[in-house]
Amino acid sequence: MEKINVKIVQDYINAHNKKPVYLHLETTNGAYATHHENKFTSGAFIRNALITYLHGKITGPGPYRVGLEMEIGWVYAEGLTHFELDKENRLILLGIDYDGKLAVTLEISDKPFPK
């Protein structure tokens, strides 16, 4: 993983406009926050949602936000700090908090993600 390169990420997002893609979106402070006695835990998880977005954008000074506008709504993730384009041409975006813990993941792929 490396720190987000806005141009590479935006180019990937643009190349997949109006094409069906598989989405993985996960947020958590759950298991990563269990060492805090009175910490409220929360999280969200969706994997292999097949969406088609009209356009998308990465914004912010870092940490970054990515929004994908669909015909009937939005997918949005913020707090993104790192990225990778893997061997399968999947865009993997992570948000690592100030303690080095994973807080958010947004992944986009032409093919379904493994279960």
C-alpha Rg (nearest Å): 14 Å
Order the strands across the largest sheet as they lie in space: 1-6-7-8-2-3-4-5
The SSE order reads EHEEEEEEE
Number of helices: 1
Task: Give the biggest sheet.
Answer: 8 strands, antiparallel
Tally the beta strands: 8
Q: Which segments are poorly predicted (pLDDT under 50) over 5 or more consecutive residues?
A: none
Q: Provide the residue-averaged pLDDT.
A: 91
Q: In what range is the share of β-strand residues?
A: over 45%
| Ends distance | 22 Å
- Computed structural class: mainly beta
Q: Helix amount, in percent? A: under 10%
- Shape, per Cα inertia axes: globular
Q: Would you mind describing this structure in some detail?
A:
The protein is mainly beta and 115 residues long. 9% of the residues lie in helices and 53% in strands. The chain has one helix at residues 6-15; strands at residues 2-3, 20-28, 43-59, 64-70, 73-80, 82-85, 91-96, 102-109. The chain has an eight-stranded antiparallel sheet with strand order 1-6-7-8-2-3-4-5. A hairpin with a 4-residue loop joins strand 3 and strand 4 (64-70). The protein starts with a strand and ends in a 6-residue tail after the last strand. The mean pLDDT is 91.
